[in-house]
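Reopening this one. Same input as before:
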Amino acid sequence: IVERHGGKIWIECSKGTGSIFSFTLPVYHENLELSSIFEECKLAAALEHNPLLVMIFPLQGLAGQWELNNDQIEELRIFIQDQIRSGDRLLYHRQENAFYLFVISERPAELSLLNRIQKAIKNYLPDRSLAWSFYPEDGDDICQLKQKAFQRAEAA
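Same output, byte for byte:
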């Protein structure tokens, strides 16, 4: 289990004095998880011969300078999770204060989901719009896709 999480495990033994079991685990980093999820979804999209839709729900910069508290963020996470299919991937990136949703599907279905979530999320974030982009046409990595997504959101 430790090795599968990128850690190391070892034992130090001394006859007659006992044993010391030690292990290390890497520190969790949201950007690494975001990149990992993107790479998994990118591979799955290629295998299915379908595009990958990346939706970003930025929570900062809300009108009135208010922010969502942890309970509201969890409520929004549950709401979004209820809107998507089991194969779609959702990540809340605390450092960026944004949700990332990765959807592999044929284009009409993706746009239908995008529109449905866009309308429904207005109940939580009336002054925010979704940022979205498609892999591979809008970029090859998560940074390019984020940039294109926010360009679209600003233009809307």
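So the earlier flakiness isn't reproducible anymore. For the record, The CA atoms of residues 38 and 141 lie 8 Å apart.
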